[in-house]
Amino acid sequence: MKKIVLLVGLWSLLSLSHAQLADTTDAEGEEEAVDLFTTPRTKLAAATSDFGYNLFRQLASRDTKASVFLSPMSISAAFTQLSMGASERAEKQIYRALRYHTLQDSQLHDTLRDLLSSLRASAKGFKSAERILLARKLRLRLEYLNSVEKQYGERPQILAGGARDLKTVNDWFKQQTGGKVDQVVPSPLPRNTALLPVGSAYFKGKWITRFGKPNKMETFRRDGQAPAVIPMMEQENYPVKMGIDSDLGCTIAQVPMEDGVSMYFFLPDEVTQNLTLIEEALTAEFVQDLSNSLHTVKVLLTLPVIKLSYKTNLLPSLSDLGLSEWLAETDLTKITSQPVKLNAVHHKVVLETAPEGAEYASTTPSATGQSLGLSYRVDRPFLFLVRDEPSGALLFIGKVLNPSDL
Ligand SMILES: *[C@@H]1O[C@H](CO)[C@@H](O)[C@H](O)[C@H]1NC(C)=O
User: Signal sequence: where (predicted)?
Assistant: First the structure.
């Protein structure tokens, strides 16, 4: 009996009200809602996040049984560099896929450059590198190479067409990511490669609050498979923001990291590979609303010790985001007058979290949360986001169905 009372209390404490959120949006109309993002930087971050959610849905739907993750900021930055070489019409098509058409920012490239440099501040633990690779034989327009270098500090790399190209390319990415992302472009590099956008990113999350039990072997339940035993980190009285979303059938926790970064976990009530309902709900606006409506509590927090590495060719997923017409007849007149074809878009991402943190959890439980025996245990398939709170930029999005996949 007592337990039921507690659960009811907990429910009303943590339950998120979509009805309330929906009412305000309805009343103010869709246009108003976007005003949550008021500066050029936050608008760009919101557009890029929406591109990221769309791309993630495409990627996730291609193989529903696989764990996947990606860095929207990195892919968007690579395609923005590419768009500088497109005709006006092609630029429109690329901007639409990247969601830039919602922005009306005449200083778009400067806004992006500044956003990227603030996200790459070392305290955030985020590194990303993107580069356009171009074959020397294309008779490239110098103006394009110069303007990309001037704007983003990196000149597109010219492929000589020999066996040394691959090593040069991958060495550059490795160096840019502090040695953390290796072999970004898989071997062999096809001999006829003319144009190849590449993006890679690395994140080492630094929690604000450390985990006292850094490495407990625990079971992770999997859909349709025997449970796996993996290392997890655990801490009592851990301060998080949390909410129960009954519409999405999941509990959401936002765990604060250093320098304004947060990691969000979407943990379904059941052990299932099917996270479609949650995936479909994700937009920049939804997550912004969420960050404002989650409740601050202290919980017994148990998280997998995450070390994920993933690489993919994003070309098919990008094609489904409205770029198929442009890809069929790639128009990059400011790069070369010769016809070029995109055969791949390589993306490699590595993400790790460690139990370390600057602060110890307090030993006294807060009035709410811990005293109710509240725990949050990520021990089954989940979806996660890494978001920069000041700008709203989505650094990573992924789902882990089976920790041994990644
Ligand atoms: C996954 O869940 C969605 C929403 O609940 C449902 O419509 C869909 O049929 C499910 N897919 C599979 C393969 O079970």
Answer: 1-19
Of all protein residues, the one whose alpha carbon is nearest to atom 3 of ligand 1 is 276
The rounded distance, in Å, linking the Cα atoms of 230 and 215 is 9
Say if residue 201 is in the same domain as residue 212: no
Greatest pairwise CA separation for the chain in angstroms: 78
Answer whether 0.85 is exceeded by the pTM. yes
273 and 383 assigned to the same domain:
yes
**347 and 362: one domain?**
no
Give per-residue pLDDT as tens, 136-190: 999 999 999 999 999 999 999 999 988 899 999 999 999 999 999 999 999 999 8
Helix (H) or strand (E) holding 275: none
Domain count for the chain, please give it.
Answer: 2
Burial class (CB in 10 A: 0-12, 13-18, 19+), 63: exposed
Looking at the fold, whether 395 and 336 belong to one and the same domain comes out as: no
Which residue CA neighbors atom 4 of ligand 1 most closely?
277
- Top mutation candidate among 62, 63, 276 for ligand 1, by most atoms within 8 Å of CB: 276
- Per the structure, the complete domain to which residue 124 belongs is given by 64-205+308-351
Taking the CA atoms of 31, 115, 392 and 327 in sequence, report the sign of the dihedral they define. positive
Query: Does a cis peptide bond (omega within 30 degrees of 0) precede residue 304?
Result: no
> Tokens 């069929």 label which residue?
328
Residue 265 and residue 180 in one domain: no
Please answer whether residues 144 and 160 qualify as being in contact, where contact means their C-beta atoms are separated by less than 8 angstroms: no
Q: Are residues 245 and 370 in the same domain?
A: yes
Answer whether residue 59 is part of any domain.
Answer: no
Ligand 1 center from residue 272 Cα (angstroms)? 10
Model pLDDT, residue 370: 45
Same domain, 239 and 169: no
Pocket of ligand 1, beta carbon within 6 A: 274, 276-277
Ligand 1 atom 13 nearest Cα: 274
CB-based contacts of 309, cutoff 8 Å, min separation 6? 348, 349, 350, 351, 406
Closest ligand 1 atom to residue 277 Cα is: 4
**Helix (H) or strand (E) run with residue 356 in it:** strand 346-359
* Residue found under tokens 């999941």: 250
